[in-house]
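Quick one, tokens below:
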């Protein structure tokens, strides 16, 4: 992926308070191959700039509103920065138990309930607690392209015209075959947990659909799911 695409796809995320605007001030983070920058969303002034040096290209960011820390996934390692910008945790792909084909990050998802982190990269779905200890590791059927976390704490992972749903423990719950739903190749995924709808986007097509509950996972190509 080119530098411009990496810069465009690097996670630009808002760090928002969960219930009250007075609890935590919001922040805007931007990452590229050289720096991490934290902005004040009101003044747009840079409040923190971190040099990445040789840490690798930025793949994804996940801020934690509880302590203003930040998780960073590069193509070489996973890092966690504290509120002051110091490295609190540094884990290489080998330390995470990930292989060479897992260096193309598809998602870094923070669970606000327990502050655990989901790492979706290559063909691996990894769940860590907020100290970096492994909670579960799941081999995906194929490489992931995008991922999203529902309010139910279930993880949705997008593959090549297929969508998988996993439990908070990393167990496969549902599989959707998207070949009849999208002519365009889906590349982006968003979950509306309130309405139970899923959004998928390709280069030229945007799809919204509501997965219907139809019991346990069936091993066929029919669309079946558990809501959430």
């Amino acid at each position: 992926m080119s530098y411009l695409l990496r810069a465009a796809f690097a996670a630009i995320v808002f760090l928002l308070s969960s219930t009250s605007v007075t609890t935590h001030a919001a922040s805007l983070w931007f990452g590229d191959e050289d720096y991490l920058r934290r902005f004040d969303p009101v003044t747009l002034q840079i409040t923190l700039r971190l040099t990445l040096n040789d840490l690798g290209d930025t793949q994804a960011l996940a801020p934690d509103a509880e302590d203003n820390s930040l998780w960073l996934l590069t193509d070489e390692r996973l890092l966690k920065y504290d509120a002051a910008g110091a490295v609190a945790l540094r884990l290489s792909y080998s330390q995470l138990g990930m292989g060479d084909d897992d260096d193309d990050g598809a998602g870094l998802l923070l669970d606000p309930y327990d502050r655990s982190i989901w790492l979706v990269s290559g063909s691996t779905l990894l769940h860590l607690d907020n100290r970096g200890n492994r909670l579960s590791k799941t081999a995906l059927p194929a490489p992931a392209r995008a991922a999203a976390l529902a309010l139910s704490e279930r993880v949705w992972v997008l593959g090549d015209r297929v969508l998988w749903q996993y439990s908070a423990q990393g167990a496969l719950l549902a599989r959707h075959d998207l070949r009849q739903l999208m002519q365009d190749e889906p590349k982006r995924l968003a979950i509306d947990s309130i309405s139970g709808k899923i959004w998928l986007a390709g280069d030229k097509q945007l799809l919204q659909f509501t997965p219907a509950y139809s019991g346990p996972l069936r091993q066929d190509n029919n669309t079946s799911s558990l809501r959430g």
